[in-house]
Amino acid sequence: MARNPYLVLGLSPKASDAEIRSAFRQLAKKHHPDRNPDDKKSEDKFKEVSAAFDILGDPERRKKYDRGEIDDDGRERPNPFHQWTQREGRGGSAGHAGGPGAGASYEDFSDIFSDLFGARGTRGGGHHMRGRDVRYRLEVDFLDAVNGAKKRVTMPDGRTLDLSVPAGSEDGQTLRLKGQGEKAPGGAGDVYVEIKVKPHAVFERKGDDIHIEAPITLKEAVLGGKITAPTIAGDVSVNVPKYSSSGTVLRLKGRGMPKKSGGAGDQYVKLKIVLPEGGDKALEEFVKNWSGAGAKNRKDFAGA
Question: 2.60.40.10, 3.90.25.10, 2.60.260.20, 1.20.1510.10: which CATH number matches 204-279?
Fold first, then answer.
């Protein structure tokens, strides 16, 4: 969930447009991905700062935000009566610093990005603004993130882009599409696609490893045998050792996530003994007459 853009930029609602531009310039220069390669925290901070400036750097959008007509994400509020309210920590339109026409103009952005990128995006001796980056969140199924997939996404401006989701993509991972952002005389911005991986009903990812829980019958637990277990690459046969207790974990080597360095992680299968639904009279009679039923076969509880 987005945060209050004033708080993101470290400003009060009474901040002037010049203060907003200055705060954005400093934070954007500090956290820009080009200056912090492979730094996820800086990348996330840059996106947060950019989103805040998208609202506060535009005088009309800032007014709407101050009046409560749009939320922290910049989306229109469905309730029209929000425009008459003031949210805690924000001033109303009367407290809005700067007059009509104030805020971030084309030149403001040009100045900011010339600071960020130096000579890049200039030509003919004059500064030209680089197009703004576009942020997009894409939800993908767990197995598509694991195995890789092709997705078609629609940008806010209506354009469609074909995107390759790499095998082994993680939740929160950001993909950069260079030059696919907004167009401008100084060159196009980029598109940043944040991957949101949907949870799976069976598989759980922990790093490069996959974990599942496999139900087994009491007979399988006592006598052992083979069961079929799902993996991200399909079903496999698993040997259950004799006298396996609930909680026993079996390792399937190389059945986990593909690694960037090559190879794959492992899959871990946690066994869980499941008794017959509705009960079983024959099983009850057997346990009552079983000579080992009363034997102490559990370890002492810690601290007992």
Answer: 2.60.260.20
